[in-house]
Amino acid sequence: SDELGPRLRQERADLADAVGQPGLCISLDMVGRGDPGRAVLLRGADVPDRPELDRWIEAAVRSPSHGFTAVQRDADRSFITRSAHYAYYEVGVPAVILLEPWPLDEGIYHTWRDVPEHVSPAKLQRTARLGRLLLEAASGDGSASPAETATGSDR
Predict the structure, then answer these.
(1) How far apart are CA 28 and CA 112, in angstroms?
(2) Is-cis flag, bond preceding 103, omega within 30?
(3) How far is CA 23 from CA 39, 44, 46, 118, 146, in A?
(4) CA-to-CA distance for 37 and 68, rounded, in angstroms?
(5) For residue 98, which phi and psi values (nearest 5 degrees)?
(6) Taking CA 51 as the corner, what is the angle to CA 48 and CA 93, rounded to the nearest 5 degrees?
(7) Are 71 and 39 in contact (CB under 8 A)?
(8) Less Cβ crowding at N or C end of the chain, within 10 Å?
(9) Would you say residue 1 has pLDDT above 60?
């Protein structure tokens, strides 16, 4: 993360110049894998209290329109600080990551074994719906407007 930090901070600064301060960062990483009925949504364990982020997550997870039977919510410092979206946390932008599998399989994560054949198009679609629900919750809350809401991807 140390070697990527300056590059990510510059990308974030470039984004802020283009669209203003983002209201939400959603990182999608290795999505579409694993249990087809379950999604994983992580936020940093050490992130300052962000009640609006908790409201957005709750609204998105509560909606049946994403199509998952379960959404695992977790907080993990060791992984979050290694993720590209951590640069957003560092500057106070609420951020989450939709990730599969969890706990992380280091033997697959960002290796040659991470291939499209392991991705379920149906699960990928449900994950996209969950991400959209997060954006809609953030946009409807008044804390972030659609023009100020940004998405990110590590893939």
Answers:
(1) 18
(2) yes
(3) 23, 17, 19, 32, 8
(4) 5
(5) -95, 125
(6) 55
(7) yes
(8) C
(9) no
pTM above 0.90, yes or no: no
Span 19-69, pLDDT tens digits = 666 688 898 888 998 889 999 888 765 566 678 888 999 999 999 999 999
Closest Cα to residue 74, out of 45, 104, 31, 95? 45
Strands 38-43 and 95-99: what pairing?
antiparallel
| Predicted pLDDT of residue 141 | 59
Q: Which of 56, 76, 60, 80 is nearest to 68 (CA)?
A: 60
Please report the pLDDT score of residue 71 as a whole number: 93
121 burial (CB, 10 Å; 0-12 / 13-18 / 19+) is exposed
